[in-house]
């Protein structure tokens, strides 16, 4: 037995860990490292259960190929790459580069060496068809930056803020949350409150984070635009905005005031299901009584209707209250792995880049941050014509499980000429793939902490992780990047990796690729690697003065925002009688984060299955009584698109009229057994309608549903319900 210091690779915080290995180099146990300078010993159940993940019975140990009868057989890595390259060459020659697409999920996004290489391969092929979970998660943030504009320096860091307003986000469970320190958010929030910071939470459920709040608003789902417009209305009416900042840096203040004028407190309170006193208290605490601190959102508003509008209005709170660093303040995280650039106290004008450049053949959508919209991925596969996707790479994603509109997703996958997955487990997507390459898990590969979004760290920090765990015996695992490099090599294509042209005559190593990513670090690659607990960039950076003659201003009230908010005002819902596609529904379904799983991951771990064997449909106890059911009884949830079964569970933290259930569960249609798999909420969601403009975000939360008890109140046998 030996113990090694490393860091977890299940999600973006990359918690510092102490890993115990046996004499064969296999994981025995994992625990948080109290000496870690970022997480201070914190780690979650997912990280602790890593050994069970590495030895999971459904782990794929060698590359596999699907035969015509649907069975899978081992295949050598090089042979598989030869066959795939040949099939790709035929497809590209016949249909062009745009016939090749890729979808990257959370598993691919936290693999540092692989992150730059998949989009590089697509670019070299001549394809724009790069999709990720970003555009079915929180792409409203990208839309808002490009439509509102941004400040050239950071917003107020939590370490010196006196207020935080969190809308539809639960960082104590979701972890990676903007506005709260990415590392150990529970400790960060509690420490901030201990020194006097106030916390406001707006959420349809009194979440773990909401229990820490000084003010908690519990609205109906989907009413975030209404509440935000109401708060802006109060702030402007009371004169609590930062008048000097607005005069110098904001355009459209009169239009903004007119835009929110119909959202008076009485109207907002009645429609959103909150009190006028709480609205006034929220506006006063955020804008009048606090001078530093921001408002931010999570997946709640971003997956609900009018998500881009909601995000825009939340950011308007920050803008009109001037919640940004000014000249002379120290930048909290100027970067460690990414190159530094000047941070100036001035506005960077709205770019609206989606209006320029490549546009999709389905829906005429532009690009966001170099990505196409995942809400139209299936249509890009299914719709015939030039540019139809015929070959698809799936990197670290259970596409068949996590995509909304699961039936369409399955049809799209089945219609492909070839699908290649880089996936360590035999999940639903792997079972539908033509080839599957088993990637190394975190402790088996060299890696870096997050670099693409390193500004989410509270300080300029990075860490190198050496491979410490031995791959399973008789396995043939790959580093994910090897698949894409190997195909580019066979197709005779160049690759530009993180801005550096790779030498295609000699295969790189994982370390050599990571060294490219770390080339801007303030120390040599070898010195950095030798920092056991990671390293900090010691040289501070300060916000520079802005150009007093700069013409750029925040665009708080562009015409499309004015029009959408007017539409919201004119289409008020009737709560308890929600109308969708000509029918009425009694409840709104919201997506739920669970501490034990991330999307579809970790359900193959015995200890986690014991805790959460299915994705229960949580309802307020009064709702269970009204339906005549008790914990464990089976019900059906029916939307305008489909129906799923679920076992109910009581949750006093929910407001009435809401059903809360986790996404990413279930199996393939026709094969799902609820007690074994749970239910896939994607069956309730359509991607043929209800897509947001600009980013094609499907309606994945605040979905109208009806709930009906199953015949004879069928019960689940799960022992987990004994504690519900």
Nutshell version of this structure?
It contains 26 helices and 34 strands.
What features would you describe in this structure?
A seven-stranded mixed beta sheet has the order 5-4-18-17-16-6-7. The protein has a six-stranded mixed beta sheet with strand order 30-32-31-34-29-33. Helix 6 (140-148) crosses helix 15 (307-320) and helix 9 (224-238) runs parallel beside helix 15. It is α/β, with parallel strands linked by helices and 724 residues long. It starts with a strand and ends in a 15-residue tail after the last strand. The protein folds into four domains: 2-54, 2-Layer Sandwich (Phosphorylase Kinase, domain 1); 64-127 and 373-450 and 464-533, Rossmann fold; 155-334, 3-Layer(aba) Sandwich (Dimethylsulfoxide Reductase, domain 2); 573-723, Barwin-like endoglucanases. The mean pLDDT is 95. The protein is 29% helix and 17% strand. The protein is globular and about 70 Å long.
Globular, elongated, flat, extended or rod-shaped: what is the shape? Answer: globular
Compute the number of structural domains. Answer: 4
User: Structural class of the secondary structure composition?
Assistant: alpha/beta
Uncertain regions spanning at least 5 consecutive residues: none
Q: Fraction of residues in helices?
A: 25-40%
- What is the overall number of helices? 26
Task: Report on the biggest sheet.
Answer: 7 strands, mixed
Give the C-level CATH assignment of the largest domain: Alpha Beta
Portion in beta strands: 15-25%
What fold name stands as the CATH topology of the largest domain?
Rossmann fold
């Amino acid at each position: 037995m030996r113990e090694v210091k490393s860091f977890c690779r299940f999600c973006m915080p990359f918690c510092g860990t102490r890993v115990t290995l046996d004499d064969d180099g296999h994981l025995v146990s994992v625990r948080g490292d109290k000496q870690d300078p970022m997480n201070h010993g914190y780690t979650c159940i997912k990280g602790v259960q890593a050994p069970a993940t590495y030895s999971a019975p459904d782990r794929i140990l060698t590359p596999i190929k699907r035969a015509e009868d649907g069975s899978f057989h081992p295949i050598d890595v090089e042979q598989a790459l030869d066959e795939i390259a040949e099939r790709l060459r035929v497809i590209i020659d016949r249909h062009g580069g745009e016939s090749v697409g890729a979808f990257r999920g959370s598993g691919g996004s936290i693999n540092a060496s692989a992150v730059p290489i998949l989009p590089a391969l697509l670019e070299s092929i001549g394809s724009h068809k790069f999709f990720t979970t970003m555009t079915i998660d929180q792409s409203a943030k990208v839309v808002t930056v490009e439509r509102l504009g941004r400040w050239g320096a950071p917003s107020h860091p939590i370490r010196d803020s006196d207020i935080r307003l969190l809308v539809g986000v639960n960082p104590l469970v979701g972890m990676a949350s903007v506005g709260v320190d990415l590392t150990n958010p529970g400790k960060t929030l509690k420490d901030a409150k201990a020194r006097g910071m106030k916390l406001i939470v707006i959420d349809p459920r009194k979440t773990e984070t909401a229990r820490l709040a000084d003010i908690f608003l519990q609205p109906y789902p989907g009413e975030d635009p209404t509440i935000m417009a109401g708060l802006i209305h109060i702030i402007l009416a009371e004169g609590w905005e930062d008048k000097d900042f607005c005069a110098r840096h904001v355009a459209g203040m009169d239009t903004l005031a007119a835009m929110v004028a119909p959202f008076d407190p009485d109207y907002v309170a009645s429609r959103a299901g909150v009190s006028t006193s709480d609205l006034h208290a929220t506006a006063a605490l955020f804008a009048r009584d606090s001078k530093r601190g921001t408002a931010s959102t999570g997946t709640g508003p971003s997956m609900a209707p009018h998500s881009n509008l909601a995000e825009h209005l939340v950011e308007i709170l920050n803008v009109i209250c001037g919640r940004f660093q000014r000249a002379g303040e120290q930048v909290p995280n100027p970067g460690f792995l990414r190159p530094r650039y000047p941070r100036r106290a001035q506005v960077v004008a709205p770019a609206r880049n989606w209006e320029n450049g490549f546009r999709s053949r389905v829906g005429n959508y532009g690009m966001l941050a170099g990505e196409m919209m995942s809400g139209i991925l299936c249509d890009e596969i299914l719709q015939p014509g030039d540019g139809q996707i015929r070959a698809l790479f799936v990197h670290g994603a259970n596409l068949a499980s996590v995509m909304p509109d699961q039936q369409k997703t399955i049809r799209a996958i089945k219609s492909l000429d070839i699908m290649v997955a880089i996936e360590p487990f035999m999940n639903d997507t792997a079972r539908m793939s033509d080839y599957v390459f088993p990637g190394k898990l975190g402790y088996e590969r060299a890696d870096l902490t997050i670099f693409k979004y390193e500004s989410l760290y509270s300080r300029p920090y990075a860490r190198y992780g050496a491979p410490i765990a031995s791959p399973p015996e008789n396995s043939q695992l790959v580093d994910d990047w090897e698949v894409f490099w190997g195909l580019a090599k066979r197709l005779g294509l160049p690759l530009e990796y993180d801005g550096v042209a790779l030498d295609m005559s000699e295969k790189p190593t994982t370390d050599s690729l990571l060294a490219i990513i770390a080339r801007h670090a303030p120390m040599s690659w070898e010195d950095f690697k030798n920092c056991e607990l990671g390293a900090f960039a010691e040289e501070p950076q300060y916000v520079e003065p802005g150009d007093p003659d700069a013409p750029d201003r925040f665009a708080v009230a562009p015409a499309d925002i004015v029009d959408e908010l007017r539409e919201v005002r004119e289409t008020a819902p009737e709560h308890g009688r929600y109308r969708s596609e000509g029918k009425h529904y009694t409840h709104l379904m919201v997506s739920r984060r669970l501490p034990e799983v991330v999307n579809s991951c970790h359900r193959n771990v015995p200890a986690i299955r014991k805790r959460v064997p299915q994705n229960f449909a949580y309802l307020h106890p009064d709702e269970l009584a009204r339906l005549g059911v008790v914990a464990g009884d089976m019900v059906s949830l029916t939307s305008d698109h489909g129906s799923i079964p679920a076992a109910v569970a009581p949750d006093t933290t929910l407001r009435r009229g809401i059903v809360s259930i986790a996404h990413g569960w279930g199996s393939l249609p026709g094969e799902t057994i609820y007690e074994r798999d749970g239910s896939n909420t994607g069956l309730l969601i359509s991607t043929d309608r209800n897509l947001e403009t600009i980013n094609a975000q499907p309606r994945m939360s605040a979905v109208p549903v009806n709930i009906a008890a199953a015949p004879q109140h069928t019960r689940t046998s799960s022992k987990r319900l004994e504690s519900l």
